[in-house]
Amino acid sequence: MPVDRQTARTSIEAHLDRVRSAIDELPVEQIIDVVDVVHAKCSAGRAIFIAGNGGSASTASHMACDLGKNVGADLETDGFRFRVIALVDNTATMTAIANDDGYQWVFARQLRALAEPGDLLILMSASGNSPNVVEAAKTARDIGVSTVGLVGFGGGLLKDLVDLPIVVGGYEYGPVEDVHLVLNHAIAQTLRAALSR
Prior knowledge:
The protein contains seven helices and five strands, in the order ααβαβααβαββα. With 197 residues, the chain is an alpha/beta fold.
């Protein structure tokens, strides 16, 4: 039996309205600040680490691809090194840490092993309260790694733990995560344009 089209239309339009509203409320100047930070770190040869849970883990991988391939690859002929690592991509490492030490440490332990002072960590969390993201932010602060947080739900704990938070309006996972992906593309596109000059 097919879905009721009017019910479906109402649901779809409501979701799109929430996403549209969240996009309209984005703090553009703060997004430019994020582009500036990523640009400065890459220009200095620093590494960029990205992490998140669930749908945000996929967005972290997506962002690592967009920054590493779509932004960095064009600059390789100029000797430009664009080092981007999604901390969600090594399944063996993540599950070993989760099994042996606890899931809250899956990003922090990797960061402590791989990052150096002056690197950058971008964290994504709709709620801003995921324990492993919170621990990663604390670890980054301990070792001198700069931090950006893409959050929603008012920012949660992460908002006050990162150097530069971007808070997406709304308290529903779907629209907040949708807008995080929009932010990924906006940041990557703007950075690519800036570096190509």
